[in-house]
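Section 5: illustrative case.
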C-alpha cells in the first residue's frame, strides 16, 4: 500500500473526528420553524440566551437579567395576533416528556413575579427529540396545549398557541434547547431557521417590530393591543396625525426620524426624536396638527428611520385621507 500524502491524512483525520462526534451526539434533524409567522414581518427574534446561562446548566433560577436568559424569544406583533391565534409547532420529531396547561395569561402584569414563581415557563411543552436535543416551548396560551406527556410529536406538529402565561409581559414564544443538561443557543444551532442575527448579537440596532399611524399620541399598551395596526384611512377633518414606531432594546442616544409627505409631495413633518432613556420595549412618536386649509385628500407617504451610530433601520407607511 502506498504512503498517504500528509494533506490527505489531515482531511481523513478531520472527517473521522466529525463522524465520531455525530455518532456520540447524534446528527441534528432537519428542523421546522416553531411559529406560524413570517420572520421579520409578523414575528421577530428579540432575545437570545445569555452568556452566563449558556456557561451553566438549565437548573439555575429563572431571571430577568439578559446574561441569565435561557432561550430564544420570538415576539409576535401584538395581542390582536394572539387573540387570532399564532400556532406553536414542534422543531423536530420526538416524544413529549412534559406538559403544563391551565396557567392564566397576563399573571405577571397583574400580580408581579410572585404570581408566577415556580411556574415561570407558564403553559408549555417539553420534547425529547430523536436527535438527542430537548426542546421546550414556553408562555403558551391557557387551554391551547394540544399534546400530552408520552405523545409522539412530529416536526411541524401544532403544539399550542402563543400566549402571555408565566414570566412574560409581552406575547412571545420562549424556545429553549438543551443537550445533556446544558443549554444551547437555538439560533446558533439552527441558523437556517433564524438567520445570523448580527444586529441583535452585537446590539447594533434596536429590534423594530412595527410602525403605524394614530390619531393622538398612542399609549404603549394600546400599540401592544394592536389598536392602530390597520388604521390606513382617515377623515380629512382629523385634528392630528401621529406616526409611531415600536422597538425592543432602545438605548439612550438612539434617534428616530419621522417624515411625512402629502399627496402633492409637500413635506408636512420632519422631526427627529432622540430616545431619552434605555427601554427594553418602547415606542417613539411624532405628529402634525391639521393644516389651516385642511388635509388634502389622497395618498400620504411616511418614512421612519431608527439610527444607532452609523447603523440604520428604515420603514415606510402609506395611508389615505378621504
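Designed sequence:
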Amino acid at each position: 500500500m502506498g504512503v498517504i500524502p500528509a494533506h490527505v491524512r489531515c482531511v481523513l483525520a478531520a472527517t473521522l473526528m466529525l463522524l465520531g462526534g455525530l455518532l456520540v451526539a447524534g446528527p441534528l434533524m432537519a428542523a421546522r420553524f416553531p411559529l406560524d409567522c413570517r420572520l421579520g414581518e409578523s414575528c421577530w427574534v428579540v432575545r437570545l440566551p445569555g452568556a452566563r446561562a449558556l456557561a451553566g446548566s438549565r437548573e439555575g433560577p429563572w431571571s430577568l437579567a439578559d446574561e441569565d436568559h435561557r432561550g430564544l424569544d420570538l415576539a409576535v406583533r401584538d395581542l390582536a395576533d394572539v387573540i387570532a391565534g399564532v400556532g406553536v409547532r414542534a422543531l423536530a420529531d420526538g416524544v413529549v416528556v412534559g406538559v403544563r396547561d391551565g396557567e392564566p395569561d397576563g399573571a405577571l402584569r397583574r400580580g408581579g413575579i410572585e404570581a408566577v414563581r415556580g411556574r415561570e415557563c407558564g403553559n408549555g411543552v417539553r420534547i425529547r427529540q430523536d436527535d438527542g436535543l430537548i426542546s421546550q416551548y414556553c408562555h403558551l396560551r391557557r387551554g391551547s396545549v394540544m399534546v400530552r406527556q408520552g405523545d409522539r410529536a412530529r416536526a411541524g406538529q401544532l403544539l399550542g398557541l402563543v400566549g402571555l402565561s408565566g414570566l412574560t409581559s409581552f406575547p412571545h414564544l420562549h424556545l429553549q434547547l438543551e443537550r445533556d443538561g446544558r443549554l444551547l443557543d437555538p439560533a446558533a444551532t439552527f441558523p437556517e431557521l433564524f438567520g445570523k442575527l448580527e444586529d441583535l448579537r452585537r446590539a447594533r440596532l434596536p429590534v423594530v417590530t412595527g410602525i403605524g399611524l394614530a390619531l393622538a399620541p398612542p399609549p404603549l399598551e394600546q400599540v401592544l393591543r394592536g389598536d392602530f395596526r390597520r388604521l390606513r384611512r382617515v377623515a380629512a377633518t382629523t385634528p392630528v396625525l401621529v406616526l409611531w414606531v415600536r422597538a425592543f432594546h432602545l438605548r439612550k442616544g438612539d434617534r428616530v426620524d419621522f417624515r411625512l409627505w402629502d399627496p402633492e409631495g409637500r413635506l408636512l413633518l420632519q422631526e427627529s426624536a432622540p430616545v431619552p432613556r434605555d427601554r427594553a420595549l418602547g415606542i417613539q412618536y411624532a405628529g402634525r396638527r391639521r393644516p389651516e386649509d385642511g388635509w388634502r385628500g389622497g395618498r400620504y407617504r411616511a418614512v421612519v428611520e431608527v439610527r444607532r451610530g452609523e447603523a440604520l433601520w428604515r420603514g415606510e407607511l402609506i395611508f389615505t385621507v378621504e
